[in-house]
Design a protein that fits this description.
The longest helix is centred in the N-terminal third of the chain and has 32 residues. It is built from 16 helices and no strands. The chain is an all-alpha fold and 403 residues long. 56% of the residues are buried. The protein has a single domain, classed as MFS general substrate transporter like domains (Growth Hormone, Chain: A), CATH 1.20.1250.20. The two termini are 29 Å apart.
Length: 403
């Protein structure tokens, strides 16, 4: 059983994820409703995710140099301030200028979310040293997914009561509550937390050079990066096009879109709860999740009925986090602890660059609300990447090296 102060930590993660999910639900829906174009939602997704992922190397270095708990709390306070600034800008501006303000607020929150994610990655192995790390990751992701379950419902309910500017206020309040919960947990925690390493006199590019050296030299890291990049092609295009596909091409209501997002989060919680309880051997966790993601992507690409699209969407969203557990556990085993932050920052950037590229592909290739052609191309790209890693790995590395 989880102890009470552990639950406090996970509750803070839940509230933070809930606020993030409200924003992630809000931006593509508002942009599509205002413009009627899947291309514009793809462009908005590109701007938001590019800012989020480009920040990873810098945030990784900061997480090695400074106390990660302080960085985590700062990230939540800065996201709350960004939402408040966006609320004010949304009230003062109108039309496309207001939409630009919304997208920029989402991009800023994405950068600060990156800082929180990297700080949490450095903290987790030290907070729960007696637990199996895959179990800790699964519990942390369950907290994330519970926030994702409630996020669409909270966002939809808030939109029914207020304009989107008011929903930004809801997100700001949730970020503040998350920070209050983390502060409460910190006061009760008695163990030692990492404090960062002094880097006085170290040039800014030295940590990045170390990270790149590890990526090139450490056995097994490059295949993990390639596989994650393939998965994020499909995850990115699914997130960038879901609002347009569901409410536009398939002619469903905003409520149905919210229900689909909630169902995806529920499926993810169930999958992660299962992962936390079972012991997978070898690469079974990665193989099964990758295969199911590929199948789900094909279903969303070829769907002509809402139920078929919905099932494909659930496979993509539900098993993305299962694959993430496999990737993060492998990364934790391979990267030296003293360089984990800086190296993980660069690795996560490389893993996720395909997400904003997927959004850009949608912006350039979608036709109105129809993005099926773009989805098909990117799903096939994921399949080719997985096949190439498997083919090269058979000749170049043993299963033990790749794990």
């Amino acid at each position: 059983m989880l102890r009470t102060h552990h639950l406090l930590f996970y509750a803070s993660l839940l509230l933070s994820r809930l606020a993030d999910q409200v924003l992630l639900f809000l931006v593509p829906l508002v942009v599509y409703q205002q413009t009627g174009s899947a291309s514009w939602t793809g462009i908005a997704f590109f701007v938001e995710t590019l800012a989020r992922f480009v920040a990873f190397p810098v945030c990784g270095v900061l997480s090695d140099r400074h106390p990660p708990m302080r960085l985590l709390r700062q990230s939540q306070a800065l996201r709350a301030l960004s939402c408040i600034a966006g609320l004010a800008a949304g009230v003062a501006l109108h039309g496309h200028a207001a939409l630009v303000a919304l997208v920029l607020v989402s991009a800023a929150c994405g950068v600060f979310t990156t800082q929180g994610v990297m700080a949490r990655e450095v903290l987790l192995p030290h907070i729960f040293p007696g637990d199996r790390f895959e179990r800790v990751l699964a519990h942390a992701q369950i907290a994330d997914q519970l926030g994702m379950v409630a996020g669409p419902a909270v966002a939809a309910a808030a939109l029914a009561l207020w304009p989107w500017q008011g929903v930004l206020g809801v997100s700001a309040l949730l970020f503040l509550l998350a920070d209050a919960g983390l502060a409460w947990w910190q006061r009760q925690h008695t163990g030692a937390l990492p404090q960062g390493r002094s880097a006085q006199g170290e040039r800014w590019w030295v940590p990045l050079r170390t990270a790149l050296h590890h990526i090139v030299q450490l056995p097994g890291l490059k295949p993990l990066i390639a596989l994650a990049a393939g998965v994020n092609l499909v995850v990115g295009v699914t997130q960038a096009t879901a609002a347009a596909m569901v409410t536009g091409l398939l002619v469903q209501s905003n409520a149905v879109y919210a229900q689909l997002q909630t169902a995806g989060a529920v499926v993810t919680v169930l999958v992660l709860a299962w992962v936390a309880r079972v012991h997978w051997r070898g690469h079974a966790l990665g193989v099964w999740s990758y295969t199911l993601l590929l199948a789900g992507g094909l279903m969303t690409a070829w769907a002509v009925h809402p139920a078929v699209y919905g099932l494909g969407f659930l496979l993509v969203i539900g098993f993305d986090k299962m694959f993430s557990v496999y990737i993060r556990a492998g990364r934790q085993r391979i990267i030296p602890p003293q360089d984990f932050g800086k190296t993980s920052g660069v690795v996560v950037l490389l893993n996720n660059l395909t997400q904003p590229l997927a959004g850009l592909a949608v912006g350039l290739g979608a036709q109105g609300a129809d993005a099926r052609g773009v989805i098909t191309v990117l799903v096939l790209g994921m399949g080719l990447i997985g096949g190439a890693v498997l083919w090269i790995g058979r000749g170049a590395a043993s299963p033990k090296q790749i794990g």
